[in-house]
# Entry
Amino acid sequence: MYVPYYYPRPNITEIPAPEHAEQVFNTFPALDGFFFFGAAGYGPELATANALLADKWVGAGKIFMASVTPFYRGLGGNYRVYEPRGFEAMAQEWEAAIAHEATWVEIVTWNDWGEASYICPFGKPKETELWEGNWGKELSHTGFLDAMRYYIDWYHNGAPPAITRDELFYAYRLHPKDVPGRIKPAEETLGLPSRVEALEDNVSVMCLLKAPAKVTIHSGDTSREFAVAAGAHHLAMPFALGKQRFVVKRAGKTVLDKTGEHEITRDSWSNFNLFAGSAGGD
# Structure
């Protein structure tokens, strides 16, 4: 089977509109299907594209391979960043692929270090050295990988999986968005990436709760408590410099208590990358 990705012509775009889907479909009638290489975009844009393309190709009795990319930040001549709102973009992309019955789903990454879409574990969450510093120090994204298990089960089984254990996934940038990026201390700063104005200086949480609970996010010297029902939920609050801590309590008992492996500072060595970790109960 041949299921490629083609840019629409002549108006090449990374986020296809209906006319782009029509152009590719009509230009290549012999294709077995189509793969959406969706990575550079915001969650709602990528989710809408998954839905549009699934309806077109699956509706015609062909294969459609949807894309899921939890985070994207390019370097070099591709120095740009997209706000994923923690795990929300990833969830939106998965849910669109599921709702519109995508034949296949690819996590569009190939562990691309320079574009920060990787999910491959490469050590403990605190470890950052990879590929001899070719792209600077990298941050762990295993929190994204861990959180995807929920959506992968949903995709395979056709319904959200039962939540039998409490889990919490957290994501945050290690510096405010107004601090220019840099790869190595000896190099000149990289400046601010394009689309930086859309970034949110938030710490975000996705939680899977088997029963109602109170979730508290401690960010530096600030905190916020959320009363959360059972199920999957996305939470966020503005971040403060310092340690990031996440606590889940139920009936007065602490169920989860995890301090993020990295603090938030005004040192931009992580260069607008996103750190993602996790904690599981039971």
User: Anything to note?
Assistant: The longest strand covers residues 202-209.
